Amino acid sequence: MDCLFCKIIAGEIPSTKVYEDDAVLAFRDINPQAPEHIVAVPKTHIESANDITAQNVKCVADVWERIPKIADKLGFGKDGYRVINNCGENGGQTVPHIHFHILGGKKFTDL
Ligand code: 5GP
Ligand code: ZN
């Protein structure tokens, strides 16, 4: 499949992995917007939030369940963090494989 994050999941494109299991991969964003900037993805290809269904929502829930564990593992969980999902063109989504940005290591003041 011609999907950047599927290629990262398959190991065809290198990434700095910070967490991996059967359902979820998390890696460092190549263009970090905070001291800690992790991208967490389901290993199942779902294009965007608009494509979540009753059948595939477990894949998304799996990512969410891992997010606090990833933040804790990297040492910024207790201080808090921000999770962002960009959906579609107006949402600023550039990679059409659903993902959650985990941003930490600083205090965010604006929305
Ligand atoms: P979006 O804009 O779709 O919400 O987020 C896509 C994110 O993927 C961006 O923050 C971008 O920096 C990151 N990204 C794009 N290409 C690569 C890559 O090849 N490797 C890694 N680690 N991150 C990437
Ligand atoms: Zn994909």
Please give a structural write-up.
This protein has 111 residues and is of the alpha+beta class. It has one domain (4-104): 2-Layer Sandwich (HIT family, subunit A). The chain has 3 helices and 5 strands. Strands 1-2-3-5-4 form a 5-stranded antiparallel beta sheet, covered by helices on one side. The radius of gyration is 13 Å and the shape is globular. It starts with a helix and ends in a 7-residue tail after the last strand. The protein binds guanosine-5'-monophosphate and zinc ion. Residues 1, 3, 5-6, 45, 97 line the site of zinc ion.
Ions, cofactors and other bound molecules: guanosine-5'-monophosphate, zinc ion
Helical content class:
25-40%
CATH architecture: 2-Layer Sandwich
Query: Which blocks of ≥5 consecutive residues have pLDDT under 50?
Result: none
Strand order, biggest sheet? 1-2-3-5-4
Number of helices: 3
- The percent range for strand residues is 15-25%
Tell the overall outline. globular
Structural class: alpha+beta
Q: Tell me the name of the CATH homologous superfamily.
A: HIT-like
The H-and-E topology, N to C, reads as HEEEHEHE
CATH topology: HIT family, subunit A
The main pleated sheet reads as: 5 strands, antiparallel
Terminal residue distance: 35 Å
Radius of gyration: 13 Å
Number of domains: 1
